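Inputs:
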Amino acid sequence: MNNPTDTAAVRRHNVALVLREIAAHGPCARTEVAAATGLVHASVSALAADLIGRGLVAEVGSASSGGRGRPRRLLRLVPGRVVAIALQVTLERVEVMAADLAGAVAHRASVPHRAPFGDPEPLAAVLAREIGRAEAVVRARRDAHLARVVIAMAGPVTGSGHTVAAAIDFGWSRTDLRALVLAHLPDLACPLDVVNDANVAALAEFHARAEQGGELPCAVAYIKADTGVGGGLVVGGRIHTGTHGMAGEVGHIPVAFDGPDCPCGARGCLAMYVGPEPLTAAAGLADVAARDGVDGALAELDRRLRAGDPRATDALAFAGRSVGAAVLAISGLVDPGEVILGGYLATWAAWLTPGIDAVMAGRRAGAPHLEPAIVRGMLGPDATLHGALRTSREATLDDATTVPTLDKPTPAG
Amino acid sequence: MNNPTDTAAVRRHNVALVLREIAAHGPCARTEVAAATGLVHASVSALAADLIGRGLVAEVGSASSGGRGRPRRLLRLVPGRVVAIALQVTLERVEVMAADLAGAVAHRASVPHRAPFGDPEPLAAVLAREIGRAEAVVRARRDAHLARVVIAMAGPVTGSGHTVAAAIDFGWSRTDLRALVLAHLPDLACPLDVVNDANVAALAEFHARAEQGGELPCAVAYIKADTGVGGGLVVGGRIHTGTHGMAGEVGHIPVAFDGPDCPCGARGCLAMYVGPEPLTAAAGLADVAARDGVDGALAELDRRLRAGDPRATDALAFAGRSVGAAVLAISGLVDPGEVILGGYLATWAAWLTPGIDAVMAGRRAGAPHLEPAIVRGMLGPDATLHGALRTSREATLDDATTVPTLDKPTPAG
DNA sequence: CTAAATATTACAAGAGTTGAAAAAACTACC
DNA sequence: GGTAGTTTTTTCAACTCTTGTAATATTTAG
């Protein structure tokens, strides 16, 4: 907010306020919105009329409010009015999901991409094709407004939100993925963002918790492990990307500065203790990994954990200690209210917790009220897709005036 | 910004914008302010008139701008109009400084406090007495407006900004220092804040760099060591306090999770490697420390470093490695554009850098553009006092309408 | 001394919110 | 069944703020 402000900005802000309230607290009357936002009845009426004009909000019947008096006319989000497309790039596939502001899924796809190492162009073509398909689905719906396309993938993304600084798994460096994809889509009429997968997963988990628990902490950290170790920081409800898009890369927190060498160039990184390869190796599954791949080894590790194999449980307990060290680092630096575990850290939380607690016990004993709560993420493997959709949702809720009015400006029939 | 916005908020924002511009870029004309802020000439005139009415800004002569034409009338901050009082609590003394928005010092004091362990009340009395003295100095000045009193001390301060959660050095816990001090000052007519000393020092160093370098990074981390190891995070120009006021406590980042026990309850904390006791001990000065205290040992260490004593330089090189590990953790988590060293880390940066670089070399080799620059702080031991003043300054610049107009509202003679 | 150039102010218009009054719509009660 | 009471929503005049244009002020070049 370094720019000059005028009354239009006030309008934007207050429209967003009303829309956010209606989106968050289900169908509700104008009076309730006024009470919740602090705006005056007259203002809420005008702002709601604006939102209705954009097709974002509609009146949905009346509800007599207990005693006598005029019944309140409830407002709610119009399903399917604003849709976003999210794409997640994993090692082998592209996952696609399109959903509206309420989270109703309009389109879902999963395709293999067979991207060659070192050349982002074929993957960009696949992404563009899938965006086109999803866009066609959205366009077929009457009055659906495509707000944004969001591509999530591993690797730091620079602040401006389009260049992947280093995608180790794909052998790229400083690749403007947005430009590559947009080159295939000259007619795309909405913004396209590239984001870090773990960062948006953190955002999704943050909102999932905020929606069920009442209070939302000022900061939340997310640590996940699946094919890699990553994470994200949500500060004040927003993703903290950092100067180079590296923020939240918890996989490379050094938990032992004289530890084993990490491919990143440093020593003793967290990923060297809880990453899939070191973890399965520590559980004595190196041979399984060599034969069946990492996924097979992880599945076998899961079986052995549930069977009570001591070598497996010991490996998890040791890994837990490194997670505990990372949590202490996070606690001291960022001081989040909660640390959320994702991926197999959530699945195997029961076996990790003893190690985490052991490392944190000392400090907790001194000041238990100052340490973050460690909780399991509630979203499964789709956390990233949901998070990518969430970034679009937040952008729309922040500035609803980007959604066109339904009267004349869209004469497309 | 979750509250409804009205035109008054627009005014606040734009007044702040103009004031900030005048404060930052010296005496400048309305035209220049308009160009820099994006506001229209007419608006700048009105806003400047408001600021002049509050006595914050004054016209200071004309300056012909090159060629012909009406000369521009320059605006500048009125010295001494808005004054803040900062107090820093150290182990043995209370340091006091009062200064105006431009940083001109109006009052300076340093008194021993002899605070007993476990009882905050005597210290609160000393603080209240010193605030009263500083206030009297401010009040004696014609038209000086006391904006804020800020108390900086070690220990996490909760977000609401008044309770010290744990002051280890003084043996307090969850102490509402603000209430204790205000009880002695029933007539204090301005807000009183309690802040973490290292956090505000980080803010001061951030602004010191921002003022000389043009671009300010989106995030900056600060690490200092003197009587203790601490730090701060500045994100988006603001101090990130965290959920419990613990953010930036870099002294307790674990750099080796099987390292030596730390009084905080954890193991391998950074403070166990670069803190004054471990550092002097590693340099073979344990006996000096026992005889002359920590300060004596640090002075001796400084002499030996400059004399080239290999044991001293080796100790610093080793400590540097732990700092490097902490920087890697900070880089991965927060991804600041710069890491600023303070205290004796700045003084002895030349001996620490080899160790830091050794730890960071590996990752820098892979992606040099993604690692933060490590720089020495420019402010000396007064960084904390300047930072405390800076928090007040930022609050005033954010909302200049808190400064009363000079006409009638202040009939005090 | 005049014309050009630059800086600042004056003024009407447009957009937004606010507060009070009016209208709408339903329930309860006689 | 009609009327009063209650609650919700809309209408309308007033106020504030920014903007764009025009007018005014002030200096230098020629």
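The radius of gyration of chain B is 23 Å. Flag for discussion at group meeting.
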